[in-house]
Amino acid sequence: AGKWQKGGPGMPLRFLAANGAEMQFNRGNTWIEVLPIGQQVKYLG
Predict the structure, then answer these.
(1) Model-level pTM?
(2) Cβ(32)–Cβ(15) under 8 Å?
(3) 32 in any annotated domain
(4) pLDDT of residue 6
(5) Per-residue pLDDT tens for 20-42?
(6) Comparing C-alpha atoms, which of 41, 30, 27, 28 is closest to residue 4?
(7) Most CB within 10 Å of its CB: which of 15, 22, 27, 38?
(8) Residue 43, Cα to own-chain centre: how many angstroms?
């Protein structure tokens, strides 16, 4: 499980992996999904 941080107003969101490393995203649109604690992601298709 990862987490997010925000330093304050006007600061960007930072997304961190379970090991604490900052996640890097490509420029453009990115979809972030937030799940309740304990719920698992299922990939269909």
Answers:
(1) 0.60
(2) yes
(3) no
(4) 92
(5) 999 999 999 988 888 888 888 88
(6) 30
(7) 15
(8) 17
Taking the C-alpha atoms of residue 25 and residue 15, their distance in angstroms, rounded to an integer, is 10
12 belongs to a structural domain: yes
> How far is residue 39 CA from its own chain's centroid?
15
Number of domains into which the chain is organized: 1
Q: Over range 2-8, report the average pLDDT.
A: 90
Note whether residue 39 is domain-resident. no
The DSSP secondary structure of 2-45, one letter per residue, reads: -EEEE-STTPPEEEE-TTSPBP---SS--------TTPPP----
What mean pLDDT do residues 11-28 have? 93
Residue 9 lies in a domain: yes
Structural domain of 9: 1-27
